[in-house]
Design goal:
Helices cover about 45% and strands about 20% of the residues. The protein is α+β, with helices and mostly antiparallel strands and about 290 residues long. A hairpin with a 2-residue loop joins strand 1 and strand 2. The chain is elongated. Copper (II) ion binds near residues 131, 198, 233, 235 and 241.
């Protein structure tokens, strides 16, 4: 009887292992880890996660190892007798000191990263991000650029019940006008909302921050690679919550400059001529400084 039960167990393990092996090609898209970040800070956060995970796994192996060993080695059928002591100062010191050391060891690098995450000083670019039901508004405080970022028309049309349209690759994850930033520059975001609480989230930057009406929250990121990064609103904000994606285009500085120039160019001739003429009448030195730029 016992023997057939044991056989049944091994058969089950064998079938499960075979099923896993067969399932591997289908599960090729499985991701066992967080994606690598496009920012240095994001990779530090990821590193912290790995550190904590490794410590947890090692503790788990030790604890369950000792538990399993004790259960087998000191089982009743082998004549084991339970010890009768109730206190051990030595054991209490050990099981207090070791966890304290582990927690301090985790707290130091964690605090360092947290402080860095909150440090929005010395930014190269400031963008005010306002959440709306259901879109985002980006205001480039240094350039006077401001625009709304809505879900793209193709996603919008295809999302209508019964539309029967084909869903494109970035369905619900594309916008008409993305946020555009230069690569390798510290971008400070100042987040707020026009109505309810939203959250600006771009997983690859490891940035997720609430946009709360009446409050300015701050965060920052510095993308190390050019490319298109996608995110979503991460705070349930009403009917259109799933229809306010985020797209960030990270480009080289000269491309970014051209993008800014393209948006600010029409106003330039008038805006430049008048102040320069006015400045040169009042303070020629200051005007010279401005024109040498
Ligand atoms: Cu939202």
């Amino acid at each position: 009887m016992y023997r057939s039960k044991a056989h049944g167990r091994w058969l089950f393990i064998g079938i499960a292992a075979a099923a896993l092996a067969i399932a591997t090609p289908a599960a090729a898209d499985w991701a066992l880890d967080f994606p690598a970040s496009a920012t240095e800070l994001g990779n530090k956060v990821r590193g912290l996660h790995h550190l904590a995970l490794i410590i947890c796994v090692v503790i788990g192996i030790i604890v369950f190892g000792v538990l399993g060993y004790s259960l087998v080695k000191f089982r009743k059928s082998q004549g084991a007798q339970a010890a009768k002591f109730s206190h051990s100062t030595k054991a209490e010191i050990v099981w207090t000191v070791i966890p304290v050391l582990i927690l301090v060891g985790l707290a130091i690098p964690t605090a360092r990263v947290l402080i860095e995450m909150e440090d929005t000083q010395a930014a190269d670019l400031r963008i005010k991000v306002t959440g709306y039901q259901w879109k985002w508004r980006y205001e480039y405080l240094d350039h006077g650029i401001s625009f709304f970022s809505n879900i793209d028309d193709a996603s919008n049309a295809a999302s209508i019940l019964g539309a029967g349209l084909e869903l494109h690759e970035h369905y619900l994850r594309d916008v008409d006008k993305p946020m555009v930033v230069p690569v390798g520059k510290k971008v400070k975001l100042q987040l707020t909302s026009n109505d309810v609480i939203h959250a600006w989230w771009v997983p690859e930057f490891y940035v997720k921050r609430d946009a709360v009406p009446g409050t300015i929250n701050e965060t920052w990121f510095k993308a190390e690679k050019t490319g298109t990064y996608r995110g979503q609103c991460a705070e349930l904000c009403g009917r259109g919550h799933g229809f306010m994606p985020i797209v960030v285009e990270v480009m080289e500085q000269d491309e970014y400059d051209a993008w800014v120039a393209g948006l600010t160019a029409p106003a330039e001739p008038e805006a430049l001529e008048e102040p320069e003429a006015a400045v040169s009448q009042i303070a020629p030195a200051a005007a010279g400084g401005a024109s040498s730029r």
